[in-house]
Amino acid sequence: MSTTAQVPTHLASSAPTPAGERQPVWKHGVAAAVVASVATSVLAAVASAAGISFADPTGASIPIAGFAQLTLVFSLVGVGIAAVMARKARRPRSTFVRTAVALTALSFVPDLTFGFDAASAATLITLHTVAAAIVVPTLAWRLSITR
């Protein structure tokens, strides 16, 4: 009588990957921040060409380059928050998403309180949402595969 043994050709593991094998969150986050900066700048330029002033009550207007700079800076702050949560939080993905949603909502406050006209405020809120829609899912996805 002969016996045959089947040897699996692919082993799937549901165990978390060791810390040394994890892909860094920041690499994808920086790329998403750059994409978000370009997107908000392009959309701000289109809105400006369509007649949105982005002017405060004093008449000072937000320069188009300011959209790229501020989007990049605050997106990188989000990348830093995600990187810390990847190392410290028990559930980094859900903790990060909740934090990012709260911070995105808080980012609407200046748009609504600095005296922008309704069209400018609505456009600024939309630009904040666009940036978050690019950066947050990218970071959340990376956080979901780092554990």
Structural description of this entry:
It is a single chain. The protein has 147 residues and is an all-alpha fold. The protein contains four helices and no strands. The protein has helices at 25-49, 64-88, 92-113, 118-145. Helix 1 (25-49) runs antiparallel to helix 4, helix 2 (64-88) packs antiparallel against helix 3 (92-113) and helix 3 (92-113) packs antiparallel against helix 4. The protein is elongated, with a radius of gyration of 21 Å.
How do the helices and strands line up, and which of them pair or pack?
Elements: H1 25-49, H2 64-88, H3 92-113, H4 118-145
Find the count of extended strands (DSSP E, 2+ residues): 0
Poorly predicted segments: 11-15
The proportion of strand residues reads: under 5%
State the separation between the terminal residues, measured CA to CA.
Answer: 47 Å
Order of helices and strands: HHHH
Mean pLDDT reading: 89
The helix-and-strand class reads mainly alpha
What is the overall shape? Answer: elongated
Number of helices: 4
Q: Helical percent range?
A: 55-70%
Sheet bearing the most strands, described? none
What is the rounded Rg? 21 Å
Descriptive tags:
147 residues, mainly alpha, 4 helices, elongated
Provide a brief overview of the structure.
It contains 4 helices and no strands.
